[in-house]
């Protein structure tokens, strides 16, 4: 959620208008940042008492790896990309670049040294029973949201390729998630690119 907010602010400052940076069909959420936060925590939290440079450099490596894998998986599954850094210097297949690796480094440092430790303290204050219920509800929501997102993007991709809805289920998806809605939610989605 915070990643989406930061990107919204960035597009407003940089381009003069707000643009959706959501990665899921419902809500201002982007799984890239969620996966990134989990990966940063798993890989780097054990080193939280070490030098801040370790968190920064680890953030660059871990965040860039997550970003590369997510871009590759999206292109493999849907034939599309949500970002392309091909025009930026020091990029790798347009999926990652040094500039955004630097931002991942800052995020890694902030997450490991400041954000996650404070967040963990707050999480521990939630009563266990309420915490479990909230966790299951959120997990169910994100699984549902992810499945609906995958189905709607799949069908959007098919429409881009001129494939008609084969049955009433896919017709319902076309009606519920038309191109205009998909373009509004996934403003940077590009189809048919293959940069390796």
How does this structure look, described?
With 196 residues, the chain is mainly alpha-helical. Helices cover 67% and strands 4% of the residues. It is built from seven helices and four strands. It starts with a helix and ends in a 5-residue tail after the last strand.
Short description:
With about 200 residues, the protein is mostly helical. The chain is about 65% helix and about 5% strand.
List keywords for this structure.
single chain, 196 residues, mainly alpha, two-stranded antiparallel sheet, two-stranded antiparallel ribbon, globular
Name the average pLDDT.
92
N to C succession of SSEs: HHHEEEHHHHE
Q: Roughly what percent helix?
A: 55-70%
Structural class: mainly alpha
> In which order are the strands of the major sheet placed?
1-4
Question: Could you name the ranges where pLDDT drops below 50 across 5 or more consecutive residues?
Answer: none
Radius of gyration equals 18 Å
Q: Characterize the largest beta sheet: strand count, sense, and whether it forms a barrel.
A: 2 strands, antiparallel
Number of strands: 4
N-end to C-end Cα span:
29 Å
Number of helices: 7
Strand content: under 5%
Shape: globular
């Amino acid at each position: 959620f915070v990643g989406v907010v930061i990107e919204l602010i960035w597009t407003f400052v940089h381009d003069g208008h707000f643009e959706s940076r959501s990665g899921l069909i419902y809500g201002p959420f982007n799984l890239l940042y969620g996966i990134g936060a989990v990966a940063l925590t798993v890989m780097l939290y054990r080193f939280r008492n070490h030098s801040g440079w370790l968190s920064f450099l680890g953030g660059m490596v871990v965040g860039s790896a997550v970003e590369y894998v997510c871009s590759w998986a999206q292109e493999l599954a849907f034939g599309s990309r949500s970002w392309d850094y091909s025009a930026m210097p020091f990029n790798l297949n347009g999926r990652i670049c040094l500039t955004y690796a630097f931002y991942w480094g800052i995020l890694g440092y902030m997450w490991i040294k400041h954000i996650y430790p404070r967040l963990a303290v707050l999480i521990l204050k939630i009563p266990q029973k309420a915490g479990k219920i909230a966790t299951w509800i959120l997990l169910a929501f994100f699984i549902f949201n992810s499945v609906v997102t995958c189905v709607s993007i799949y069908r959007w991709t098919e429409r881009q390729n001129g494939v008609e809805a084969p049955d009433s289920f896919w017709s319902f998806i076309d009606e519920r998630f038309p191109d205009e809605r998909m373009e509004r939610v996934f403003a940077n989605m590009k189809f048919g690119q293959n940069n390796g």
